[in-house]
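Q: Start with the shorter request: fold the first protein.
A: Done. Sequence, then structure:
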Amino acid sequence: MTIAGLPDEPREHGHEVEPVVDLNAPAEGGPPPMHETLNQFVEWLASWYVRKVDGRNSMWTSRWFDSAEVVIRMEAMWRAFESARLESGPAMSIWLKEHVDYHMTLILAPEGPLYAYGYNYSDQVTQGEPLPVIAPPLGMFSKETIGDRLAAAEAAESQ
């Protein structure tokens, strides 16, 4: 079975074999993605996903890309969004409930993936304000596989 946007042959990454994914390539006859990069998607999501963040009961950082888990969860939401936005009916509602609500609850959780960075690392956000986001370092997301992004995020975490 061929999945739109995935090549037939996987490529090697370390000890694992992963498919090369080009989210910028439209599916056969389909429109291009709404967000060309993961960072664009995160900026868009953060602009309307408004939550109070105090660094104790909820954690967020404009440097979201420092956490490998946050990167993978954001990419999962991005891919699901690009698929759902092209469907009719309840697809976007399902995306919000099954993807955004689920992943963002885990990301913002006080003992979630940002917990290890500590209270001082978390940005403070007043209820009603968008989540702050800064651009990741140049070249951090130059490759289009989750494995490459995970390796880059883990390297950033170890510094």
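Q: Next, the second protein, separately.
A: Sequence, then structure:
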Amino acid sequence: MLNKGNLLKDISFQIRGLFHRLALTGESLHAQSPISIAQRAILESMYISGRQTIPSLAKNRSVSRQFIQKNVNGLTRKKFVKILENPEHKRSFYIELTDAGRELIGEFIKKENMVFQELAKHYSLIELENALSLLKRFDKHLQNYDGKAK
């Protein structure tokens, strides 16, 4: 039987598949990349939002601080990010893009934008606006969900 709960479950299932397809597309598009998909996501987050701490990166990506720290360590070794002192907190440093990191993620975004521009031809503006609105609301309600069925 079709109801809103089942439709939302189907949307959730579709999102999971889309997430994996996006990851595979990214891996293919950036096959020669010196960084992993997880590291790419960290660079993109800083490209958009500027310098951040490990805890804020972890919270924004809904992953553990340890996962972020491991990937930031790799990015630091490759000189795509640098560690800066945080005057507000002695143990939580800021992570910031280096010029090399900014250039690399800029190249990634440029390639990806070309793909998205091509794919966008299949949708109307209103379809895309409605999809984005729905996904943002779904995410907001899920963030506030306490895990208890009512």
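Q: Describe the second briefly.
A: The chain has a mean pLDDT of 92. The beta strands are 52-53, 81-84, 94-97.
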